[in-house]
Write a structure and sequence with these properties.
This protein has 88 residues and is of the alpha+beta class. It has one domain. Helix content is 38%, strand content 12%. The chain has four helices and two strands, in the order αααββα. The protein has a two-stranded antiparallel sheet with strand order 1-2. A hairpin with a 7-residue loop joins β1 and β2. α2 packs across α3. It is globular. The two termini are 24 Å apart.
Length: 88
């Protein structure tokens, strides 16, 4: 599948409120890094992160050697598009 087709299909779906809150946090972070914890210090649910990964809205950034089960991700161009915040 071409990048354009993947981008278009990823932007057709609408994020849930939890997904949107998670993805929006990457807009202000260097490199689009997404958080492991929410504004209240609670860990972001794996279900939220994995669903965003499956839709192409984020991608794995690196593995945390201390906590290998934690998914450290960054926002993708499809993630920015679904939020209406494409990079210019």
């Amino acid at each position: 599948m071409s990048d354009l087709m993947e981008h278009q299909s990823a932007t057709k779906a609408k994020p849930s409120s939890a997904q949107r809150r998670y993805l929006e946090r990457g807009l202000s972070e260097p490199g689009g890094k997404l958080p492991l914890f929410d504004q209240d210090g609670q860990r972001i649910k794996d279900k939220t992160i994995r669903s965003c990964l499956s839709k192409g809205w984020c991608e794995p950034w690196y593995r945390n050697p201390i906590k290998p089960d934690w998914l450290v991700c960054k926002l993708t161009s499809a993630g920015r598009a679904v939020l209406g915040k494409e990079k210019r």
